[in-house]
Amino acid sequence: MFCDLIFPSSSMCIQCYYIGATSDAATKIINEVSKPLSYHVPVEKICEKLKKKDSQICELRYDKQLDLTTVDLKKLKVKDLKKILEDWGESCKGCAEKSDFIRKIIELMPKHAPAAAKARTDL
How far apart are CA 34 and CA 27, in angstroms? Predict the structure, then answer.
């Protein structure tokens, strides 16, 4: 199916599964989602109708995407800092303060996000 080819292992896969766009999906409501979207029906209205069939569809959320070249790490929550490290496959053993996580991210940025590391002036 469409999503199996386009998004083989991503958070989009979850959304594809819920609308029936994957081969292993339990429901097939893809037309009930895509047609109203193509007619520019507000998402709230689509969710209202779909809640009768599958209430989980409108509870799905994307992860927040961060631009590491411009984001102020000091303004991020510790949860977001941990997520950056987790996405990189790293951990911060012994980190107790927010500043510890920021220090670790700045230390690892040249390895995992070299373009962002070059663009930042605070490193």
Answer: 14
pTM, entire model: 0.54
- My answer on whether 51 and 81 are in the same domain is no
C-alpha closest to that of 111 among 123, 94, 93: 123
C-alpha dist (Å) from residue 106 to 9, 27, 49: 28, 44, 46
Amino acid identity of 70?
T
Give the mean pLDDT of the chain: 81
CATH of the domain at 13: 1.10.225.10
Same domain, 16 and 52: yes
Question: What whole-number distance in Å separates Cα of residue 103 and Cα of residue 99?
Answer: 6
Cβ atoms within 10 Å of 88's Cβ, excluding its own? 15
Count of domains for the chain: 2
48: containing domain: 2-59
pLDDT of residue 93 exceeding 70, the answer is yes
